[in-house]
Amino acid sequence: TQDNVAAWLDSVDIIIPSAGIDIRAYYETYKHKFIFELDIFSEHAQLPITAISGSVGKTTVTTLLSQLMSAYHMRVLTGGNIGIATLNLLTSQSEYERFVLEV
User: Fold this and answer.
1) 98-102/49-52 β-pairing
2) Which of 83, 77, 79, 70 is nearest to 96 (CA)?
């Protein structure tokens, strides 16, 4: 119920929401507790990031852009909503030149 959710949100220090969870009903009240996956990623990424967002065509654009960059001999690490999970990309970044993310 709404009361249970609010009680839980009151009891925690940090909230890392899943991208698929609608937080709009709680965001204004608890915005000081929310930390997003992409914020964590960008703090630890040591490579340039190309991020593709939107509602239609993200996977296609991300895939094509990665293939195009690879064809031009760029070592790109692709992931996010496709392939490797965003935070998992950080463990391999020393072998690449750029991140390409579907977000």
Assistant:
1) parallel
2) 77
Pairing of strands 76-80, 49-52: unpaired
Phi, psi dihedrals of residue 27, rounded to the nearest 5°: -60, -45
Q: What is the mean pLDDT of the chain?
A: 94
Residues 6+ apart with CB under 8 A from 62: 52, 78, 80, 82, 100, 101, 102
Q: Is 28 helix (H, G, I), strand (E, B) or coil?
A: helix
For residues 53 and 58, what is the distance between their CA atoms, to the nearest angstrom? 6
- pLDDT of residue 19 exceeding 90: no
- Cα-based torsion angle of the residue sequence 18, 23, 26, 31 in order, rounded to the nearest 10 degrees: 60
pLDDT for position 1: 66
Does this model's pTM top 0.70? My answer is yes
